[in-house]
Automatic annotation (TrEMBL):
This is Transposase-associated domain-containing protein. Coiled coil: none annotated. It comes from Deinandra increscens subsp. villosa. Residues 5-93 form the Transposase-associated domain. PANTHER family: OS08G0208400 PROTEIN (PTHR10775), TRANSPOSON, EN_SPM-LIKE, TRANSPOSASE-ASSOCIATED DOMAIN PROTEIN-RELATED (PTHR10775:SF183). It comes from the Eukaryota. It holds the Pfam family Transposase_21.
Amino acid sequence: MSFDREWMYTMRLTSNGLFNPAFVSCVAYFLDFVFDNPNNIHKRTKDGVENLVIKCPCVDCKNRRYKTRAEVEFHLYHKGFVDDYKVWYLHGESLHTQDVGQCSNPLPSSVARQDVDDDHGQYNGYEEMVMETMHQSHHPYYQQEPQDPNQTAKKFYTMLSQANEPLWIGSENASTLSIATRLLNWKSDCNISDSAFDKLLVIIKDILPDGEKLSRNFYETKKILKPLELPSERIHVCKNHCMLFNGEYSHLERCRVCNENRYKERGNKIPKLVMTYMPIGPRLQRLFYSKKIAKHLTWHADHVRQPEKMSHPSEGQAWNHFDSVFPDFAQETRNVRIGLCTDGFTPNQSSATPYSCWPVFITVYNLPPWLALKEQYVQLPLIIPGPKDPTHNLDVFLQPLINELKMLFADGIETYDAYRRNNFQMRVVLLWTVSDFPAYGMLSGWSTRGKLACPYCSDKSGSFRLSFGRKQCWFDCHRQHLPSKHCFLKDGINFRKGVTVPSVRPIPYPTGEEIWQTIQHFPTVYQGIPYVKGCKKPTGFGETHNWVKKSIFWELSIYNVNVFF
């Protein structure tokens, strides 16, 4: 048996940057050697519990910090040994030791020892996920028995491993997956054409050594990443935003509401309007596949709350009220709470050719505040195509998302948690929407125009019409919210001339149940009833309420309407 300790620096990772399982037996040999010598062990008491600790020889601790056996084991797996420590003089050996032993446990013959660079930290996100999955079972902080990933997660990890093969024999820092992602990212950032991309690949292939596995053209490069794609669905839409041609109506060639033709011309089967829907369930699952992100997805329950300060929506009344109504949902802290945001924009930045496009964003509020609104954690389930503003027919486009949200709340989907190493049934709930006032009217069904535009004050807002312009005005409507003895209440000079507010009474805001009693018989715009300007409004519109429709979001409140409104 050889008497060198090169395994400390050459065996931890394979040539393509993945964790080498053979390294486990060598670390076990080192720890057994250290704990067999009582002089190396110290006692540390923390929170009334006594632990045996030794100096940790990892790259970060550098034999300066004391850790438990499990912590040292994890550090060595994750970071490797400190440089030039082949003689374990801080763990019981003499500096003059000549017979430096190697791991005594035999290594599998199929595992070859590879030389790797000392810098092991340069991985892209996908490579790091593969490495974490292969050695995360040794993390000392897991309390439950580890579980194997479910079939969906296992297929994903296997796919990453297969795509992470070296670009050529002997390549240590380049893999087919990393090079494909970097090249496609460069192509997108620099707006490179397909033909220029293909010509560049020919030049690079001539430079690389024999046996290289670089793709030959743009098509093959995209094909490498094809297995990593998330599902999406193209749905045909009526040109007038009346209905979606999917589900039981996927066979129709004319709109069942306005009788508009589905296709541009007969026989060519080219739809007039198409919407792309990207399901959020698989995308939320991917967040749990990364150990680092999965750890943050319970921050809302793990962080320390400061008294009289609100640092996260989980400390607000809406969040806590939902937890009290659905304790079974709140019990699993990994269940996802999301918010929805939408607004229109003109993608071409041109007023000459107006085109209104409406993206719908999903924000994950489980994450800490500094991550929740980062670009990589915001989902884009659908983009409502233009060129016309969808107005209150926005509900037609939201049907696939609402149907998926109902499924995710009621049943959930099995998800593998890479941080806790187990599978759980992930459920999702939409807690609130975030939008400007016009978009609020489209989402809620409450018209934000006229004298009842305010959804809280309604007919008690005190709005009035201008004498000459005949426009509705809300000037001087705020004094009714001041304290009862405020000096502004009796001021008839600096506000509306001669108008005072004699008494202040709190406005009773309607509850969800009261709103439901009002609108439960109102029409919807996604069940064959279109909404167009000038259409007949529900009874009492503009007098006792400003509801123009029953919003599709009421389908999410079937369990308890007071939770969502």
